[in-house]
Design goal:
62 residues; three-stranded antiparallel β-sheet; Rubrerythrin, domain 2; mainly beta
Length: 62
């Protein structure tokens, strides 16, 4: 049996490159752009929308 796989794509908001997902991404999932290396967060699933992921800041126990 052969199973057809549908590629899911979205556009990088930083450089407009095509980001491919093997399966439907989850909200909040982080992806990395292969062109500009930007870390992107899935902010919407229908349609798929990507935004720059917030930078993780160190919490020094304050």
């Amino acid at each position: 049996m052969s199973q057809s796989t549908q590629r899911i794509t979205a556009e990088c908001p930083e450089c407009a490159a095509e980001i491919r997902f093997d399966r439907s991404p989850l909200a909040g999932q982080i992806a990395t752009c292969g062109e500009c290396s930007a870390e992107l967060e899935v902010t919407s699933r229908e349609p798929i929308r990507l935004e720059l992921a917030p930078e993780v800041e160190e919490d020094w126990g304050e």
